[in-house]
Specification:
Elements lengths: L7 H6 E3 L5 E3 L13 H9 L5 H11 L19 H17 L1
Antiparallel strand pairs: 1-2
């Protein structure tokens, strides 16, 4: 079975932090800045993390769970490690033999 391929164009434009948030470059900030007011440029500098609904949209392109700036860390479920998975199996087997 073939692997799912990531969207390379998206990967070039974003960075994913360790907590699952997505950093991106703000639009309208790099080009023709002399015509924009200082207040507008300051606001464009502020938040560079992607919102939750946009992060949800990118999950389909990148085939992984992501998290936006307005989602808690609990929204990102971590897969158990092989050792944790084995411990869960042992615990389930022990509870079956007791009952």
């Amino acid at each position: 079975m073939s692997k799912n391929k990531l969207h390379k164009g998206t990967l070039k434009r974003i960075r994913i932090s360790k907590t699952g948030k997505i950093r991106h470059r703000s639009a309208y900030h790099k080009h023709l800045r002399s015509g924009k007011s200082g207040k507008r440029l300051r606001h464009l500098r502020q938040d560079r993390y992607m919102a939750g609904p946009d992060a949800k949209r990118l999950e389909k392109l990148l085939f992984r769970r992501l998290r936006g700036r307005n989602q808690p860390r609990t929204a990102l479920h971590r897969s158990p490690s092989p050792a944790e998975r084995q411990a869960m199996r042992d615990q389930a087997a022990a509870s079956e033999t007791q009952s």
